[in-house]
């Protein structure tokens, strides 16, 4: 006798006697498509925009109309758009350009996600506010995280000191020293380039990237000085033989763990970016695959078409996602066998409606340094 295989429908009722072919769609198997958003924070000078109003920026002309033709935000938008036209760009004007308070900006942002935030205000008080906010956004109960880009000028000691004063995996700051360029323009360039390449592939190193329009000052840091900065939370550039500058290595400002010890877990910006994308895809995959499902410990004795999910099924989805998407399609991770052997998925012992999982992904590295030893004979 042929076994009956029940199928659970979302829209087609069981009590249906009118003849016809009724087919429902389940878009949950479709790919996740998301346009990344960048937010410019700055000063306006005239224009139609009201301070503390987040507005889309469609072009340089649009920015001039909204924030003023010669405003900081219009100039930032021009540089950003010249170097990154793929992101959905927004801008917000502070109320007092001479003494900006980012608390009001953070309040306006609410829980809307901005993947890349471009911030020219680097005083200690505002940075503490931003750090708290970015930690909140990274938290698993919010998951609306992003990266904050900044630049810092001054002499070598001042730049290094600023880097050492911060400790956040969500901040990334470029030292520009005595560059004659206005800081907000250098910032827009830095953010545009980083966000452009990270959006394409969060795991590829952001290095050896030309910085069009950037002018170095009289001070050019040596390799030893740049290495010191990379141990102080500051991203670096280097100057080519023709005088042009390229991004050398883009890092975060994370330097110490909660115990105060030196820690490089989030050194490169690729780590937080890749983990963020992976978390997003894990959430999307599981939540879109098992919409309105019942939960059982095992699938034994249930028909194959039943809307019932088990820990084993969720584990299989996570393993497939790791191997076929994170590894095969995107090249974000490695060592599938280790991931498979350490992945744990189980029903919470105190909540029968909750599934807990713990995984240990091995992120792919970035080829940055070649060290060789030549043992020769003469």
UniProtKB/TrEMBL annotation:
| Tail sheath protein subtilisin-like domain sequence ranges | 98-253
Q: Which Pfam families match?
A: Phage_sheath_1
Tell me where on the tree of life, at the top rank, the source sits: Bacteria
Name the InterPro entries for this protein.
Answer: Phage_sheath_subtilisin (IPR035089)
What protein family is recorded?
Belongs to the myoviridae tail sheath protein family.
Instruction: Return the protein name.
Output: Tail sheath protein subtilisin-like domain-containing protein
